[in-house]
Write a structure and sequence with these properties.
This protein has 372 residues and is mainly α. It has helices at residues 5-14, 30-63, 66-105, 107-133, 139-159, 181-208, 216-236, 239-247, 255-292, 302-307, 333-339, and strands spanning 297-299, 322-325, 330-332. It is elongated and about 80 Å long.
Length: 372
Amino acid sequence: MQPNCGHLHSIAGSGAPCPPSGDSSCQPSAGAVHIQLGEARESTSSRQGSQSRSHSHGEAGGLEDPAPDSEEHGGSSLSELRHLLQWLHKSLPYLLILCVKLLMQHLSGISLGIGLLTTYAYANKSIVNQVFLRERCSKLQCTWLLLYLTGSSLLLYYTFHSQSLYYSLIFLNPTVDFMNFWEVLWIVGVTDFILKFLFMGFKCFILLVPSFVMPFKSKGYWYMLLEELCQYYRMFVPIPVWFRFLVARGELDSVLGWTLGILLGLLYLILKLLSFFGQLRNFRQVLRIFFTRPHYGVPASKRQCSESDDICSICQAEFQKPILLICQHTFCEECISLWFNREKTCPLCRTVISDHINKWKDGATSMHLQIF
C-alpha cells in the first residue's frame, strides 16, 4: 500500500501532529522528521538571537544613560543663564536710572577726579619726554609744567578751602564734622594726587638746573630718590584720616561700638606697619645707590674706542665720555646710564652688569593710587 505523500507534505508544512490512528498513511517519513527538526533548530536559534540582541541593546542603553543626564545638566545651566540675561534686560532701564542719579549726586567729585587724572597723565608724560631729551630739553616747557602743577594744586585747595584739605599733608584731620566712607575716599584721593603734583614739580625744578651745575647722570639719581620719598610719604599720609574713620562710634553708640572701633583701628595700624617694613628694604637700597653712585665700567682708551669704530652702538654717534663695561663693550656714559635705568645686561652680549634696576631714573611717577 503506497503512503499518502500529499498528506505527509501537508503535515510537514503545517507542523500539526498526526491524529492517533493505525493507518500507515499518518506516519511521517524520515525526511519529514528531518525537516521538522531543522525548523525547530532555526526557530530556537532565532529566538536566542533576538534575546541576545535585546540584551546587548539593553546594555548599550545602560551605558548611554549618563549622556542624557549631562545634556539635562547643560540644558539647566543654559536655562539659568537665559533667565539671568532676561532679568538684566528687563532691569536695564532701572539700572540706568540709578546710575544717572548717582552721577548727579557725585557729579563734582567725578569731574574733579577726571581732571586730576588727566592732569597727572599729561604732566607725567611731558616730564618723561623732557628727561629723555637730556640737554635738548625745553626750559620753557619745564617752566610751564612747574607753573601748571602749582596752579592746579592751589586752585583745588582754594575751591575747597572750607574743608581744609591741606591739613592731610601734615598728618592732621581736615575740618569735617563727620566723615563717612565716601568723604574719606574723597580726602585721601585728593591728597594723594596733590602729593604727586608736588614731587613732579620738584622734578621739573631739577630739569631746569643747568647741566654744568648738575650733570644728567646725577639728575637721574635725584629723580629716583624723589620718587621713592614720594611713595613713602604717600603711604603714611592717609593714616590719621582712616584711623579717625575706623575708631568713630558711628551708629554703635555704646561700649561695643567703642571696642569694635578701637580694634579696627589697631588692626589697620598693624597692617600699615607691616607694609612699611616690607618696603623698607627697597628704600634702603635706593639710599645706598644714591650715595654710592655705582659705576658700570671704566673710562675707555682711544684704542678701545677705535676697536668699536668710534661709534656708540646705542646712539649711533661718536663716543661722548666712553665707558668700557666688564664685557669689553664700549658705550657713551649717558647712553649706557639710560639703558641701565630699565635693564641689567649689556645691550650687545646680554652679560649681567648690574644687580639691580634703577627704577624711576627716567623721571616717571608711579600711577599707583594710595587709598589706604
